[in-house]
Amino acid sequence: MSFAFPIVLRIFVAVLALQSFGAWAQQYVSITAREANMRSGPGTQHAVQWSLSRGYPLQVVARRGEWLQVRDFERDTGWVHRSLTGKATHKVVRASVANLRAQPRTGGKLLGKIERGEIVQRLARRGDWVQVQREGGQRGWVAGRLLWGG
């Protein structure tokens, strides 16, 4: 009986660790700074891979201190400082082209087209549709499957 408790405790700790990993592994953030550097490692001594603009959505893969290892919609990974990110309020178009509609349905009036890689702000969700706002202020609905991000 004396061995049962430590084993149960170890299993409990392992389950908690896996749950916490899953919680932040599915976390999304958006760039809040005007521009942020994506680096090859967790620190300013690492090379800048590319720059990201405000609103760019990223999936958190890992954390090391104040640095987040992140993945973008094209599955590229790198590191950004946590202070340059915030709650995910943006999405990126992952389809070649997405229709922007006045209503959240396929038959809704077509307001325009959004190209792959364009960043939009998420305003609301209704079923499989996401209400978004483009940088210029235009609002509309896009099928959620055509977007990526939190």
Automatic annotation (TrEMBL):
Record-linked SMART domains: SH3b (SM00287)
Residue intervals of the SH3b domain: 88-150
InterPro entries recorded: Cell_Wall_Dynamics_Protein, DUF1058, SH3-like_bac-type
Protein known as: SH3b domain-containing protein
Listed Pfam families: SH3_3, SH3_4
